Amino acid sequence: MKLKYVCLVAAAAWAGSVAGALAGDPAEGEKIFTTKCKVCHQIGEGAKNFVGPELNGLIGRKTGSVPDYNYSDANKDSGITWDEAKLKEYLLSPKTVIPGTKMIFAGLPKESDRDNLIAYLSQFGPDGTKK
C-alpha cells in the first residue's frame, strides 16, 4: 500500500512538472509576438493570412491547414497537429522540425520566450476571440 502511494505521488509530481514546464506568461508572450512574429503573422479577431498564415486556434490544428494560405509541401505533408510540446520544439528550430518549411524564422533560443509565446497564442480560439 505504501509503495502504491509513493508511486502515485511521484506520478502526480511528474505530471505537475510537465504542465509547469509548458506554463508561460501571456503578457510577456504578446511582447514576443509583437517584436518577433507580427511582421509575418496575424492573430485575433479579423486576423488574415499575411506573409505567414493567421495563427488563431493554433493549438490542436494540423499543419498546413489554414484555408487560402500557400503552404510548402513540407508543412502540408508533415502530419503534425500542433500541441504545446510540438510547438515549443518548432519555435526552437522550425527547419529542424519541418525540413523544407518556408518559414525563415531562425527560432527562439530561450525556453521562457517559447513558453510565454505559446501561452499568448493559446488564448485565441479558431475565430480569433480570446478563450
The CATH superfamily is: Cytochrome c-like domain
Q: What is the count of DSSP helices, taking H or I runs of 4+ residues?
A: 6
Average pLDDT level: 88
Number of strands: 0
**What is the count of distinct domains?**
1
Could you name the CATH class? Mainly Alpha
Structural class: mainly alpha
Short key terms for the protein model shown above:
single chain, 131 residues, mainly alpha, Cytochrome Bc1 Complex, Chain D, domain 2, 6 helices, disordered N terminus
In short:
This protein has 131 residues and is mostly helical. The chain has helices at residues 2-21, 26-37, 73-76, 84-92, 94-97, 111-121.
Task: Provide structural commentary.
- The chain is an all-alpha fold and 131 residues long.
- The chain has one domain (25-121): Cytochrome c-like domain (Cytochrome Bc1 Complex, Chain D, domain 2, Orthogonal Bundle), CATH 1.10.760.
- 46% of the residues lie in helices and 0% in strands.
- It contains 6 helices and no strands.
- The chain has helices at 2-21, 26-37, 73-76, 84-92, 94-97, 111-121.
- α2 (26-37) crosses α6 (111-121) and α4 crosses α6 (111-121).
- The chain starts with a helix and ends in a 10-residue tail after the last helix.
